[in-house]
């Protein structure tokens, strides 16, 4: 394989640029030509494709977002859209493709794989909801961004003896709420993977107030409900001086953490290794700190992401 391309798709995640850099420089090291596709699958179909050199990916490892840009393109779910994309890849003589993104991006890569086009997926999403890997690019940075904000909210909550309901991103997964909640010492964590009892939460807040605790932090994953909806439920159980803070798209931005930069670099390096060997239809990941490659069809069609629910149990037992 002598010519490959890279695209980033879906929501941006800190560390995507580190992955783009690793793919580009590893491929050039191996004697390949590398092309960047702007704006994800939309740019692929439009032919918005440019050759990348070593200097094109210099000074980007520390930057958030994606230098290849991103866009939603639901039309790629159709066979017509997929064949148009393959036509563009053939036009540029591109023999393999690296797709960096989340669930929707992976399904695009899956479609190309089923058409016989060599594709390797790299999990890049703050949500950490991709099967076949313990962690995705961007998850660590996003969790730390949430933690920094929650630590500051704690000061205000304590000063005014308030209950802060903090809504965090994560789509249908509760990983960000779970990890940041444990790290922040949240009094309660509400995630899609576990049912909650609003009366139990209200009783817990009342008990902590009785013993003199001056703040309460409740992490709510957006996949359950909005922070405002949760506040409305809680207020029916009593007056807990509730305030809602929504940590929206700010969580996606910022310089990637050490963990995300290294993970992205490992993923990018591994993706090129696979394509160099002529392998496609795969997605890279990390399991028990080992970089792995899995069949993308089996991964998406037969596996599911499961958060570490021992963290949920632990938090309930040590935070009160």
UniProtKB/TrEMBL annotation:
Identify the cofactor(s): Mg(2+)
A GO molecular-function descriptor = identical protein binding
What is the role of the protein in this entry? Answer: Catalyzes the phosphorylation of D-fructose 6-phosphate to fructose 1,6-bisphosphate by ATP, the first committing step of glycolysis.
Characterize the regulation of its activity: Allosterically activated by ADP and other diphosphonucleosides, and allosterically inhibited by phosphoenolpyruvate.
GO aspect biological process, one term: canonical glycolysis
The keyword Kinase is annotated on this UniProt entry: yes
Q: Where is the active site?
A: 127 (proton acceptor)
Q: Record's SUPFAM superfamilies?
A: Phosphofructokinase
Q: Where does Mg(2+) bind?
A: 103
Q: Which gene encodes it?
A: pfkA
Under Pfam families, the record lists: PFK
Which sequence ranges form a coiled-coil region, renumbered to this chain?
none
The protein's annotated catalytic reaction(s) are:
beta-D-fructose 6-phosphate + ATP = beta-D-fructose 1,6-bisphosphate + ADP + H(+)
InterPro entries cross-referenced by the UniProt entry: ATP_PFK, ATP_PFK_prok-type, PFKA_ATP_prok, Phosphofructokinase_dom, PKF_sf
Q: Where is the Phosphofructokinase domain?
A: 3-275
Name of the featured protein: ATP-dependent 6-phosphofructokinase
Residues bound to ADP: 21-25, 154, 185-187, 211, 213-215
Q: What class of enzyme is it?
A: transferase
Lineage top rank: taxon: Bacteria
According to its UniProt entry, this protein's organism is Vagococcus coleopterorum
